[in-house]
Amino acid sequence: MTDKTSKLSPIRAAVIGHPVGHSLSPLIHRHWITTYGLSGSYDAIDVAPAELATGIASFVAEGYAGFNVTVPHKQAVMALCDTCDPAARAIGAVNTVVISGGKPHGRNTDAAGFIMNLKESLPGFSFTDARALVLGAGGAARAVVYGLQQEGVSAIRVTNRTAERAQALGDDFGLEVVSWDEKEAALSDVTLLVNTTALGMTGQPSLTLDLSALAPGAAVYDIVYKPLMTPLLCAAKDRGNPIVTGIGMLLHQAGPAFEAWFGIAPAVTPALRRTVEEAAR
Ligand code: ATR
Description:
By secondary structure, this protein is α/β, with parallel strands linked by helices. 36% of the residues lie in helices and 19% in strands. It has ten helices and twelve strands. The strands form two sheets. The protein has a six-stranded mixed β-sheet with strand order 2-1-3-5-6-4. A six-stranded parallel β-sheet has the order 9-8-7-10-11-12, sandwiched between helices. A hairpin with a 2-residue loop joins β5 and β6. The longest helix is centred in the C-terminal third of the chain and has 16 residues. It starts with a helix and ends with a helix. It binds 2'-monophosphoadenosine-5'-diphosphate (ATR).
């Protein structure tokens, strides 16, 4: 145990969002608090955008170890942090705040979570030879692209319904931009297809994408985890392509945050994965 976990006062952490009731983070962090027998808490706290600055100030004043940040605060919280790590700066979003020395410090663990899940799900996946096509150009796409580039993937193409956003992402990260209408043709030489759009999520339209041109060995990764098996993943699985589901990204982005606050690197066990999959249904 580290100094942090041996302190007598309980360690407090939270997730802030607006709304925040849908967040699965309390389930994950409370599971680890119980598993490791820690004296601590993890709450879901609704913070309206107008209350963000005062909300963060009160977390600092109340001695919180830190908090996760979800929609719609991931960008706005950056300006309220004393420092932001390189991932947060490159991605342009903070999903984890660590309070130390009486100051909030922003981090982004989404990229690391995306990569850890890929490595865990497809241990043989070669990053050095990878050619990726990323669908979408929002905050999640930025985290995915950053993570892939950190692993040495140089051939990354991006496509998005709104061409200007694809171009902005392409310019920021030095990517080839493919028009949304030509994404199927761009499948032919990719080794990794990643969906970061909302398409396929429960309540959203399906992603319409004919996978015929995709090589049989190409991996298909959907970061949407509700449902776990999106129509894209079902189609990829049916034709025998290796697939990666999105729930592991959620679990693995939580691990580094938990470690920063509670001082223990938590395990993403099959039992935890099943519990969270069940809750996400
Ligand atoms: P996140 O932070 O999760 O990436 P976001 O910034 O709102 O959220 O981005 C959502 C992504 O899903 C965008 O790429 C968006 O495309 P646009 O930039 O064109 O809006 C994509 N998306 C959402 N609904 C879509 C739809 N019906 N068709 C195509 N793309 C869609």
